[in-house]
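job 3f2a | input accepted
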Amino acid sequence: MIEKSLPGQPHQGAMQLAPDARAAALQALSLAPKPAAPAGPVGELTDRVLVHACFDTGYQLLDLLPSDVSGLVLRGAKANSGITKLRHNRYQGALVPDPEGYTRAAATEDEPFALPTEGGLFPVSLNDVLQAQLDAGATAAMTPTGYLPAGQPAPLKAAARLVERLDRDDFLFSVPIAVAWLSHDHFPQLLAILKRLTVPKAIMLGGQYDPMDRKKGVVANLRRLVAEAGHVAVFRTDLTAFDAMSHGAFAASIGTGGSLRHVVPFGQIPLAGKGKEKDRSPSVLFPELMSFHKGNLLAERFANLETPPACWCGSCHGRKLDTFLDKPDSLAAHAHGVHIWNEWGAEMRAQRVLGERAEWWQKRCQKAIDHCDTVNIEIGREDAFDAPGPLKAWAGLPIWPSTP
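job 3f2a | predicted structure (404 res):
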């Protein structure tokens, strides 16, 4: 158990290289009642699990989002105009645009941001882009950072220098990194660069399929990053949101669909749907297993069960998990997921300190892993479901980071 004798909420940017100082800072962070809030308007995002979606989907999910602990990260061409429309309709919750610079270019040392180039007499600056987002009604703006491949620190350093010079506290520095940045070869440099930045960061992980489904080292290093690199949020993710927010991240966003739960490396074609053109079923959260599965896969796995698993959330009302079979079921699948992770978010925030959040999260993950065996026995197939790699890492790693 985590000791609870030290009160207060430490400043996460105070982490030091010295092992004793680092251990003390990590201990202090574990005793904080919630993550430290960044200064300025970005602080309004603190302790929120946001929904990452396009405008059309986000608009239909709006009534499911508690205004004090959730909100939207809107992506795509309608992000700014969508925020304006939502504000016009008197929506008061948190709204952040994702300009998705990482889909338009790879960051370079000379041009780390994907800034607009067409139209107008004068070039558009980074300040112009951020101000346009805020003028649209965004709670906080976000930089259009290009994709950051691993092992190329110059573009990341260039972007960091530019955002540090901005005299404002109303934006997030988008950091769309290849997941290999979290490997032991590259992580020390990533941590060193981001620790020096005082501005809040929004990490987005790039890779085909689930970027976190690699090794325990990736999970452990992401935990270190959110604990030691100042004010860090983790966006465009899946249940990694809860692991990050149980270990120091001040906010997170979860994508409504599989394509919005990670970043595809710039220049690559998404492989997740390759060869599955006829499977139009949505990705469905199986709450007891804490994992996402295509609706048609669930239907195939439970085909011989007399009573397939059902969900009794506020959207499903007893709907069977094997009935999300086609594209028209996508909105229902999204609403189901939002209801479930809203419940988990409430449980997470009910813990007294971050250390207890981490303990709560580990127990929940282990319970889901154990439940895999139960479901497989019911189905009569030993290999029907296997816990994803990240889930095993969340359950198997030490509850709280410690000094090496």
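job 3f2a | The CA atoms of residues 6 and 87 lie 41 Å apart.
job 3f2a | closed
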